[in-house]
Structures are given as C-alpha cells and as structure tokens.
Amino acid sequence: MKITSTGLLALSSLLPLALGQSQLYGQCGGIGWSGATTCVSGATCTVVNAYYSQCLPSSASSSTPPPTSTSSTGTGTTTSSAPGSTGTTTPVAGNPFEGYEIYLSPYYANEVANAVTQISDPTTAAAAATVANIPTFIWLDQVAKVPSLGTYLADASSKQQSEGKNYLVQIVVYDLPDRDCAALASNGEFSIADNGEADYHNYIDQIVAQIKQYPDVRVVAVIEPDSLANLVTNLSVPKCANAQTTYLECVTYAMQQLSAVGVIMYLDAGHAGWLGWPANLSPAAQLFTSLYSNAGSPSGVRGLATNVANYNALVATTPDPITQGDPNYDEMLYIEALAPMLGSGFPAHFIVDQGRSGVQDIRQQWGDWCNVLGAGFGTRPTTNTGSSLIDSIVWVKPGGECDGTSNTSSPRYDAHCGLPDATPNAPEAGTWFQAYFETLVEKANPPL
Ligand SMILES: *[C@@H]1O[C@H](CO)[C@@H](O)[C@H](O)[C@H]1NC(C)=O
Ligand SMILES: *[C@@H]1O[C@H](CO)[C@@H](O)[C@H](O)[C@H]1NC(C)=O
C-alpha cells in the first residue's frame, strides 16, 4: 500500500499528544531527549546520530524520496541570478567580512599563474589570469601545511600595516581522523585506530600556535567539510558509525581552541541536496545545536557554511530536474528552512560557496560531486548576498584543484569520479586539473 506523506502528516498531527508518539520526521530519542520514544503508525524510530533519533517512514511505505548526498565535494550548477536583487542589501550585524580585505592565497595564485602559461588562446588566458585576484580559502588538509599559515598571516599582517587596511585570512580546517568516512577520494592522513584523536589535537594546537602570533589579522575558518553531514545521514556506513564519537570530540576541541584565539568559524552544513531534504533538516539542526551548546557555546562560532566544493545555485531560476522532491532545491531555500530550526542560541549566520556554481542543470544525479562536467566559475565573493542570514558568498573550493581521481586502479578511486557527468582523466584529489580549470574559466557565469 502506498501511503502519501501528506496523509501521514495529517494523521500524525492529531495523534502525537494523545498517544505520546512522535510524528513523521519528528524526534523520538537521543541524548537529552525526554519526549515520546515511539512513532505514529507508518513511521519507525531510527537512530540518526547520538543526539537525534527520528521517526522515518517505515520501509517502502512512503512516497517521500530518499535523501541524497554528495560526499566530498560539490555537484551542481548555478545560474547566478543576481542575489542582491532578491532581498535585503543591509549588511548583517556583526558580519565578519564587512570592512575587511580578503587575503589572496599565494599558493592558489601560483597555481593559476602556472595554468595561464599553458593556455594558448590569449582571450582565455587573460580571463584565466583574473582568477588569481578572486579570494579562495586555504585548505589545511594536512598537518604539514600548517606552517604555511604562519607565512600567510605574517604577509597579511605586513600588508595590513603598509596599506592601512584590515585583512582577513580564510582557512579550511580539514584533517579529522578517518576523514571523508562515506567516500574514498579524500581520505586523510590520520586514523582513529592509530592515535588519530591525539594527532588531530596536535594539528589544531599547531594552527592555534600560528594564529596566536598574529592577533592583528582576522581569521575565518570553515570547519571540517562533510563530517557532520556524514553523521546525519551516513551512520549506516561502518567507517562513519565508528568515527562518530571521535568526530564530535575533535570538532568540539577545534571549536573551543580556535575560539580562544579569536577565529571566526562556520561549521560545514553540507548543502541543499544533502541536509536540505525535509527528513534531514531537524536531525541536522539538532546535531549543530547540541554540539555547539555542549562545547560551551564558543563565541568564535558564527554559523554554518553550505555548498562547500559543491555546485548548487544560491538562487536557482528554475529547479534543476534532479532536485525533484526536495522543496529546498537551492541554497537559499535550504538556509531559510534550516535557520529557524537551530536552537539554544546557535548563531544562524551562513556563508555559501558559489565558486563552481556558474552553470546549472549539468548533473545526472544530485549526489554527483566529482569534477562535474561543464561547470563554470560562479558569483564572485560578496557580502551583497540577498539575505540577512548570509554573511557572504565565498569561494571555498579553489577551482581547478581536483575533487578526486578517475583512475580506477588508484586506492583513492571513488566511483563518483568515473560517472558520465564527471570529467575524465582526473588526477588525485587536491592536485591541479588543468582541463577542468580551463572549462571553469570558459563557462564562468558571470563571465570573468
Ligand atoms: C550517505 O548518505 C547519503 C544521504 O542519505 C546517501 O545518498 C549516500 O549514498 C550515503 N553514502 C554511502 C557511502 O552510503
Ligand atoms: C593509476 O593508478 C595506478 C595505481 O596507483 C598507477 O600505477 C597508474 O600509473 C595510474 N595510471 C595513471 C594513468 O595515472
């Protein structure tokens, strides 16, 4: 029998109080939960994460489409419809991006400069060269990269003094033990079984030590892409279930220690096609809220980052057909749906990656995230975001750095990188992918 979710919702709205049962998609357990632990008919109480059990449709009884996710990096495309035109242009109070010059990563500038020398068409080469002036985030994805942060902070500090401007350095904290637990392409250097938690603390301590030396430079950080979203939807993957406690402990440590040296943080919150599905919104909100309050509400936590390394539009002109069934078919809708669910004083401010969202409707499935074919650079970083919830549009993923190899013999091969909508001949994750960069340049929207 096919039961529509509308029917279940209508029924459940009458019953929960009377029967002490939770409604479809309602909470039915988790640390600190004192409400009903059983679900209305047609739904089963399912453990989502340590903080949240949820009434999900009993198998095959619901018309609600299954949530989809992308694991490491983005999928999607954006037709960027001028965000500034759709909402308020009033700067968000306390917006850490306001009044700051964003430090350009010399590492990325160098990658771009090298890439330009390989482009023979002068028009394309000139357009490509301008990408070096667009700020991206610095990924501290190995402990060996942490000392470079000190170099950049010193550089930003001296620029700040010579130019009389305030500088902001953007980093990604990305080195959890058993990283990328639901995919293969971005496996990290630390393992839970081999001292991973202590290694991670040491990694954070080294970042803190660098930042402490330059209290005059503002640091904005995205915290651990994909990790918390994996705890919301991927605990059925043994590696994720095994990593749950460690991820929570390590992210707590990062929030507390980085907050103590003034870092402004956005926890990674997946994207509209992952946590934006109605079934995932409440468990996600609960996870972020509990994690934050259990950490002592660190003052450096400013909010959440969405669409990191993904391809979704901030505002889609029309829903991409692959988003069908998810009312939150773009990042703006996702953010507007998630924000009111965040509780306990969790700061509902957002940044949204649009670096590779210039072209929309290019994926075959919403969960496709690897070097999506035909992607173009998207809306430039700006605080003119069209929403009082969004501090800034950012480019977190440095466009041109590969999402994952298409070499099926590589130990880090992930099948997503071999799909028909993934760009072929891709090198290992994080290394330069020249052909991909050139497409991003050619298809940039707005044009470079
Ligand atoms: C992770 O969860 C998402 C969302 O439910 C799902 O689409 C994806 O297949 C999962 N990944 C794995 C490896 O199970
Ligand atoms: C693919 O990966 C295998 C195993 O790491 C390696 O030996 C081989 O050279 C790679 N092929 C290419 C084309 O890079």
From TrEMBL:
InterPro entries assigned: Beta_cellobiohydrolase, Beta_cellobiohydrolase_sf, CBD, CBD_sf, Glyco_hydro_6_CS
UniProt keyword annotations, A-Z: Carbohydrate metabolism, Cellulose degradation, Disulfide bond, Glycosidase, Hydrolase, Polysaccharide degradation, Signal
Residue intervals of the CBM1 domain: 20-56
An example Gene Ontology biological process: cellulose catabolic process
UniProt enzyme class: hydrolase
Gene Ontology molecular functions: cellulose binding; hydrolase activity, hydrolyzing O-glycosyl compounds
Name of a matching Pfam family: CBM_1
Region Disordered, residue ranges: 58-93
SMART domains xrefs: fCBD
GO cellular component: extracellular region
Active site: residue positions: D180, D226 (proton donor), D403 (proton acceptor)
Binding-site residues, substrate: W139, D141, H271, W274, N310, W369, K397, E401
Domain of life per record: Eukaryota
E.C. no: 3.2.1.-
Sequence similarity: Belongs to the glycosyl hydrolase family 6.
This protein's name: Glucanase
Lineage of the organism: Eukaryota, Fungi, Dikarya, Basidiomycota, Agaricomycotina
